[in-house]
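Reproducibility note. Readers wishing to regenerate the assembly model reported in the main text can use the exact inputs given here. Chain order matters: entities are listed in the order in which they were concatenated for prediction.
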Amino acid sequence: MTYPRRVPAIEIEHLRVTRGRTLVLPDVSVGVEAGTVTGLLGPSGSGKSTLLRAIVGVQIVESGRVEVLGLPAGSPELRAHVGYLTQAPSVYGDLTVRENLAYFGRVLNAPASRIHEVLEIVGMAELAGRLVRTLSGGQLSRVSLATALLGEPEVLVLDEPTVGLDPLLRRDLWSTFRMLAEKGTTLLVSSHVMDEADRCDRLLLMREGGILADETPADLRTQTGCDSLDDAFLALVEAS
Amino acid sequence: MSSRVTGATVVRVLQQLRRDPRTLGLIFVVPPALITLFRYVFEGDVATFNRIGGLMIGIFPFSSMFVVTSIAMLRERTTGTLERLMTMPLAKADILFGYGIAFAGVAALQASITATVAFELLGLHVAGTPLVVVGLAVANAVLGMSLGLLASAFAKTEFQAVQFMPAVVFPQLLLCGLLVPRTHMAHVLDVISYALPLTWSVDALSHAVRGGGNGIIIRDAIVVVGVTLSALALAATTLRRRTP
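Running the prediction on these inputs yields the following structure tokens for the assembly.
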């Protein structure tokens, strides 16, 4: 527990993103500390995915500065150090679970032993030989998550990693996230489930493309005088 | 670009194809079946079969690889695997060459099967070297693949991707000199045909079938390779790391 280091792993200043004709992020400035688990919470359509896409450097941005580990987001040097889980599971349906991980593992130059490790983490070791297109939705997103963990990245950007998973597995995954953070990994995890918020060191609450709050769960409760984070979110929305 | 990543991509593309035995069946069975059909349609005109049969061996891989690649690449775009790869330490060339090498291998097998059926079972007779015909077939396959990669960027659905086949492949088939000598076409079509890559590969094939004309075959092959490389370079620009 020598971490967290008090340095920002992700720094965003005046980020502005328009997708199509919609101004999704008008002006976002926020930082994420290294070695922490930060929750990005908000209703769907609030701009969470767009913000995450900007951080991994796949989003065309209009203006503003996005830096990850001190480098502009999307820099070639960052590709080996940033893991990204897209909201829709992006794995090959016509390959087995193991073949998928073997391919992405080769691309990331991860050791072959890493495949089994990540499958254990997401609880998919027994299904390694299954063809991905025959998996259920929850299993599919676990394979996708395993892929994001393959390269042991320093920064993990996870877009709704626990959707459709049973509570037991969700608890285990959050323990894994915690363990990774203690080893120094920076995690930014989006969710629209408020009960996951308590497992984060810090919360970013998003609504309509803006950051409504950037607090620890405890401070959020104190400030709003609410016990449940759901109520705290509502109080903030009403106050804004 | 790294040989590790390109190699891994070749293996992955072949693994995906292996999981689709019906497509593989169509790739390997339809061309020999069609050339057999062709042989018996021209039962009374063996000279025509000998003239066009050799060309067909070289043209099948062009159209099959065009369709297979454009749909495979479209799937990479729509399922998000391309976006995922683009966030990883991988060069665009790793993807392009990964596909290219994998499909060139498949095409070599396809052309060999078709050629074996045509030459051994159907008694196809060409004055030139059958191996040159097979070699040109592989070049055609890679040409089809590179155009397919490019076409996939302009399709949003698989329906659209399939429709690129009649739009891109059929006009070239009509104008390449396969059906009628190009000098018999309206002059403007003859001029246009020079701009179409299949014209050059069919010209090379027809010399390979007739025998001789090695210099022309090499010239035509250079044009085909040049178009292939240009299409790959253009396709690379459609593999975007950042999207709107």
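We highlight two features of this model. Residues 45 and 208 of chain A are 7 Å apart (CA to CA). Residues 1-5 of chain A have pLDDT under 50 and may be disordered.
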